[in-house]
Amino acid sequence: MFRVYDSVVWGMAGLRFLSSGIEFTAAALMLYFGRVETAFQINALLSLIGPTILFSVTLLGLWGLAARLSFLGLASVLLGVGLIFYGVNQLR
């Protein structure tokens, strides 16, 4: 089906599949409980999982690219990820 031989790509995709499974389960739990308070609590737990998955997938990708990127390229990517987290934290 997929002809991907790079274990880093499989790891990144696996983490995203894990994330989507958690998100789907959370949505199903929200519908199961049917209360705004419970749905809000489930959503609060998801706010911890999302950035963790983003950070993990990004680190895994950087690990896979580390041998091919120059130091400046690697620093640029890390700065970009840092700016994403900084921008998201400014919304609070």
Characterise this structure.
The chain is mostly helical and 92 residues long. It has one domain (7-89). It contains three helices and no strands. Helix 1 runs antiparallel to helix 2 (36-65) and helix 2 (36-65) runs antiparallel to helix 3 (71-89). The longest helix is centred in the middle third of the chain and has 30 residues, at 36-65. The chain is flat, with a radius of gyration of 17 Å. The model has no long low-confidence stretch (mean pLDDT 89).
Could you outline the blueprint of secondary structure elements for this entry?
Layout: H1 7-33, H2 36-65, H3 71-89
Poorly predicted runs: none
The total strand number stands at 0
Q: Give the number of domains.
A: 1
As a whole number of angstroms, the C-alpha radius of gyration is: 17 Å
Q: Choose one word for the global shape.
A: flat
Query: What is the string of helix and strand elements?
Result: HHH
Mean pLDDT: 89
How does the major sheet shape up?
A: none
Residue share in helix: over 70%
Q: How large is the share of residues in beta strands?
A: under 5%
Tell me the distance between the termini. Answer: 43 Å
Structural class: mainly alpha
